[in-house]
C-alpha cells in the first residue's frame, strides 16, 4: 500500500517537473526519496504502532497528591518484547508534578502501579495494581489513588501455636506479588517471628526456606495488618 502511494506521488510530481532543469529534478527526486524512506521506516520505529499511558495522582479524599511518585509499568503478556523506552521494563518514571506519562509502549495490556515515600517511615502506594490497555497511537488514562501500604505479621509455630525460637537466625520470609515482579523479603527474628510493613496492597504468595515448596496465598490490604503463621519448620 505504501509503495503504491509512493509510486503515484512520484509520477504526479515528475509530470509537473518536466519543464524544469535536470538539476532541479534531481534535487526534488532526492527529497522525495528521503521522504519515502521515512514513511516506510516510521512503522518499524514504532511511531505508528506504539501508544502511551498517562494519568494523575489523587489522595483518598479526591484531592491531588503532590509528593514525588515512582510509576512502574510491566507487560501483562510476558512474551511482549519491549524495544522502546528507557529504562527497560518494568518501566519507571519519576514525576515532578501531579501527572505522569509513559511513552513508546507497544500495543497490549500493562500492569501499572506506583509508590511514594511519604516520610521516613511511611511508603504509600496506588490502591493495588491496575491494568491499562494500550492501543496504537492512543493514550490510555490510568489515574491512580495513593493509599497507605499494608503490613504482615507471623511466625513459625509448634503444635501448641507457640513461636519456635530456633526457627530464626539466617532464615528468610519472601512475599511474591501474584501479578507483577514485586518482591519483599525479611530475615526471621531470633524469636521465630517476622513482620513486614509498607507493602503494596494486593495478592501475594508467601514462602520461607524453612518450609520449602507450597507458596500459600495471603492478601495485603491498605492500612491493615495481615497475619500468616507457618506450621513449624521443616528444612527443605
Proportion of β residues? Answer: 35-45%
CATH class of the largest domain, named: Mainly Beta
* SSE order, one letter for each helix or strand: HHEEEEEEEEEEEEEEEE
Q: Provide mean pLDDT, rounded.
A: 76
**Tally of DSSP β-strands:** 16
Sheet/helix structural class: alpha+beta
| Tally of helical segments | 2
Low-confidence stretches: 1-12, 33-46, 84-88
Kindly identify the CATH topology of the largest domain: Immunoglobulin-like
The largest sheet, given as strand count, sense and whether it forms a barrel, is: 9 strands, mixed
Topology, please?
Layout: H1 2-17, H2 22-44, E1 50-58, E2 69-75, E3 91-95, E4 99-106, E5 108-119, E6 122-126, E7 130-134, E8 139-141, E9 144-148, E10 150-156, E11 172-177, E12 183-187, E13 193-199, E14 202-208, E15 217-220, E16 225-230
Helix pairs in contact: 1-2
Descriptive report:
- Mean pLDDT is about 75; it is low at about 1-10, about 35-45 and about 85-90.
- This protein has 3 domains: about 1-45; about 50-150, Sandwich (Immunoglobulin-like); about 150-230, Carboxypeptidase-like, regulatory domain (Immunoglobulin-like, Sandwich), CATH 2.60.40.1120.
- Helix 1 (about 1-15) runs antiparallel to helix 2 (about 20-45).
- Strands 1, 2, 3, 4, 5, 6, 7, 8 and 9 form a 9-stranded mixed beta sheet that branches. The protein has a 4-stranded antiparallel beta sheet with strand order 12-11-14-15, with no helix packed on it. The protein has a 3-stranded mixed beta sheet with strand order 13-10-16, with no helix packed on it.
- The protein has helices spanning about 1-15, 20-45; strands at about 50-60, 70-75, 90-95, 100-105, 110-120, 120-125, 130-135, 140, 145-150, 150-155, 170-175, 185, 195-200, 200-210, 215-220, 225-230.
- It is of the alpha+beta class and about 240 residues long.
